[in-house]
Amino acid sequence: MVAESDPAPPVAVSHGPSRHIRLTSHSGAVGTPVIRWGAATAAERGPVIGTTITRAHRNVIGTHSGSYSVYRALAVAAGALSRDHRADLTNTAPTDVIGPYEQWSRPGAIVSLDPWGAMVAEAFATELAGGYDIRPTIAVTKAHVILPEIAEAIVKGRLHPDGRILLPSGAALVTKAAVEPVWYLPGVAARFGCSETELRRVLFEETGGMYPELVTRGDLEVFLPPIGGQTVYIFGAPRDLADPTVELTARVHDECNGSDVFGSDICTCRPYLTHAIEECILGAQRGGVGVVAYSRKEGRALGEVTKFLVYNARKRQDGGDTAEQYFARTECVAGVQDMRFQELMPDVLHWLGIRKIHRLVSMSNMKYDAITGAGIEVGERVNIPDELIPPDARVEIDAKMAAGYFTPGPVPDADELRIAKGRGLAQ
Ligand SMILES: [Zn+2]
Fold it and tell me: Are 64 and 137 in contact (CB under 8 A)?
């Protein structure tokens, strides 16, 4: 064993012919708070501690901030950040209290985020005062969101400023929450129907051995994965989300930087997002509440490089860009059609206490199945109006409808899918 003060990262080292593994981290160090995942109160559950300052306090695998943990390491390496820095949480408390809700302790309901993550400073004040470096994994604040599509909807008379949800300037008032991933490994394994041992082994191997504790520390059941998290935008009162008698308009949206931010017209992501925001504002103005949960799962979680490769493959294939070949081209490059795994997505809805979505703004059968499979009732499904679909995105929409995505209109047939509708690369 290596002493706690050893600054070296944990590594599995083989020693000659015996090939025994030397562990660099202790299990069950004295004074390490225990995590009882799914416990009914924060005190019983215990704090999630991913600090790198005092190794003996750690009760998770990985570190905080998701993918940004690597930038933190760079900042330390560059000498810009002291590795002993501790967050001063003064005045950082959530602007709105979310929960606790029954779902927080319902077995298996939440496995990919820490429902107590926003309440750290309050719930674990004693531990913080006692020297434990405990960090929030959720932050809740207020914002005004200003989108040209919403301003246009006001001009066209579809939206009306009320000074409460929507200001005359076109700004919509929201409560927003940032959520980092916190995975309870036994629960994640159960969600995907594999054994925890298998999940740990594959996570270890497919990250190039980045987290040896996945295979050496079976006692650590919580993993802070180096992936993007989620942002939740709430229109109306956050507490109303948990009241099934209040009309709830919701969209769960997966990141598409090209469309969401830059307005690229090959897909319907931004039009869908802004349409959902318009529906959320309308719902909140009717006395309901709206929510958009935005997940950092760029390009169906395949990443943007893969996504752009697929765009080229689609547009250069014989016969041009057709809906018939839409999913096949993705699979040729990525090996799968989709890597978003909506199985984990409903966790954020459970965190918000949601039991019923009256209006789900989505065509995705995968999202619908995941939400209803998690025990959340879905009323009406709201699809994107035809006039909001960019011409080049017709390929995507036709392919999705033919593949079983929800549509109130006719499903395109085989002949329809073979008609090239996508623009060429030179156009
Ligand atoms: Zn997109």
Answer: yes
Length of the chain: 427
The rounded Å distance from CA 33 to ligand 1 centre is 43
Residues assigned a catalytic role: 338, 340
pLDDT tens digit sequence for 331-356: 988 888 888 889 999 999 999 999 99
Q: Name residues whose C-beta falls within 8 Å of residue 84's C-beta, 6 or more positions apart in sequence.
A: 53
Helix axes 326-334, 304-316, angle to 10 degrees: 130
Radius of gyration of the chain (CA): 23
Crossing angle (nearest 10°) for helices 148-155 and 269-285: 60
Q: Which of 393, 377, 359, 132 is nearest to 266 (CA)?
A: 393
Nearest residue to 100 via CA among 53, 41, 58: 41
Residue 384 DSSP symbol = P
Ligand 1 centroid–CA 15 distance in Å is 49
Q: Compute, in angstroms, the gap from residue 298 CA to the centroid of ligand 1.
A: 9
- Structure token digits, residue 181: 């991933």
pLDDT per residue as tens digits for the range 187-233: 999 999 999 999 999 999 999 999 999 999 999 999 999 999 999 99
Gap between the Cα atoms of 43 and 35, Å rounded = 10
What pLDDT, in 10s, does the model give residues 39-93? 999 999 999 999 999 999 999 999 999 999 999 999 999 999 999 999 999 999 9
Cα torsion through 395, 396, 399, 402, rounded to 10 = -110
Q: How many Å lie between the centroid of ligand 1 and the Cα of residue 178? A: 21
Distant-in-sequence, close-in-space partners of 216: CB < 8 Å, separation ≥ 6: 10, 12, 21, 23, 25
The protein residues having their C-beta less than 5 angstroms from ligand 1 (an ion) are 256, 259, 267, 269
pLDDT digits (tens, 9 = 90+) for 156-169: 999 999 999 999 99
Q: Which two three-digit tokens encode residue 152?
A: 């246009």
Residue 409, Cβ neighbours under 10 Å: how many?
8
